[in-house]
Amino acid sequence: MAKVGPTTSDDVPPLDPDAVERAYHFHRAKRAARQRRHQESRLAAVRFWLVLALVVLVAALLASRTMGEIERVFGL
Fold first, then answer.
1. CB of 52 closer than 8 Å to CB of 58
2. CA nearest neighbour of 58 among 50, 48, 70, 47
3. What is the mean pLDDT of residues 64-75?
4. Structural domain of residue 53, as residue ranges?
5. Residues 70, 76: contact at Cβ < 8 Å?
6. What percent of the chain has pLDDT over 70?
7. Residue 20, in any domain of the structure
8. Does residue 3 belong to any structural domain of this protein?
9. Is the pLDDT score of 5 beyond 90?
10. Per residue, what are the HEC states of the chain?
11. Fewer CB within 10 Å, N side or C side of the chain?
12. Distance between CA atoms of 44 and 70, rounded to whole angstroms?
């Protein structure tokens, strides 16, 4: 079996001095994107309920107007 010789400083790859700062910015951007997604999904839920309430209101108004016209035309 082959033996691994001692490593010298020439065998070790040089460290990137900006790696820590890049990782910091990467994770900070990732966290900001996650927070933005969460806020957008909350706003989407609010918009959904507002539009649903508006549609139900319009449908109720149309139904009441239609019933009023039916009663007027047929004398009910």
1. no
2. 50
3. 90
4. 26-76
5. yes
6. 86
7. no
8. no
9. no
10. CCCCCCCCCCCCCCCCCCHHHHHHHHHHHHHHHHHHHHHHHHHHHHHHHHHHHHHHHHHHHHHHHHHHHHHHHHCC
11. N
12. 38
At which residue do the structure tokens 């910015």 appear?
A: 25
Mean pLDDT in residue range 47-70: 96
Lookup result for tokens 């790859």: 13
Asked if pLDDT for residue 8 goes beyond 70, the answer is no
- Rounded Cα gap, residues 2 and 8, in angstroms: 18
Residue 55 inside a domain? The answer is yes
pLDDT digits (tens, 9 = 90+) for 27-42: 999 999 999 999 999 9
Q: What does the alpha-carbon distance between residue 18 and residue 1 come to, in Å, rounded to a whole number?
A: 39
Identify the pLDDT of residue 6: 63
Q: How many domains does the chain have?
A: 1
